[in-house]
């Protein structure tokens, strides 16, 4: 039993959550797919890039609204999924989003970032 508990503790020590997400702009004309291990912080960073008029894709097209996200435990799975979605045409991305968000509502309020 002791060995099992040790193994479980070792396994949980490296436990993380990774997110693949899709952002859009106010008029929903652009879709941006990204990956992060802290979605709230990443959304904040995207908003700051827009505010500062940086030269990123998100800032240029003002993609600050979250439409969709998926959670992963393993970073390799998240990276593979991000690459997969980035290779899709717009229609396929919208079909994915509408599977869980049929009205294409902005859902970034689910993730609040507070810099402590």
Automatic annotation (TrEMBL):
Instruction: Alphabetically list the UniProt keywords.
Output: Endonuclease, Hydrolase, Nuclease
Q: Which residues form the signal peptide?
A: none
What protein does this entry describe?
Putative endonuclease containing a URI domain
Report the residue ranges that make up the GIY-YIG domain in this protein.
16-96
Against InterPro entries, the record matches this protein to: GIY-YIG_endonuc, GIY-YIG_endonuc_sf, UPF0213_domain
Q: Family membership, please give it.
A: Belongs to the UPF0213 family.
- PANTHER family, per database record: BSL5627 PROTEIN, UPF0213 PROTEIN YHBQ
A Pfam family hit: GIY-YIG
- Can you provide one Gene Ontology molecular function annotated for this UniProt record? endonuclease activity
Show the SMART domains listed in the entry: GIYc
Q: Which SUPFAM superfamilies match?
A: GIY-YIG endonuclease
């Amino acid at each position: 039993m002791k060995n099992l508990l040790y193994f479980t503790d070792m396994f949980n020590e490296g436990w993380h959550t990774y997110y693949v997400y899709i952002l859009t702009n106010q008029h929903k004309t652009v879709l941006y797919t990204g990956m992060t291990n802290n979605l709230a912080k990443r959304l904040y960073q995207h908003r700051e890039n827009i505010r500062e008029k940086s030269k990123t894709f998100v800032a240029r097209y003002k993609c600050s609204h979250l439409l969709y996200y998926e959670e992963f435990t393993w970073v390799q799975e998240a990276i593979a999924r991000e690459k997969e979605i980035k290779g899709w045409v717009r229609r396929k991305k919208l079909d994915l989003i509408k599977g869980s968000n049929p009205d294409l509502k902005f859902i970034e309020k689910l993730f609040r970032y507070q810099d402590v």
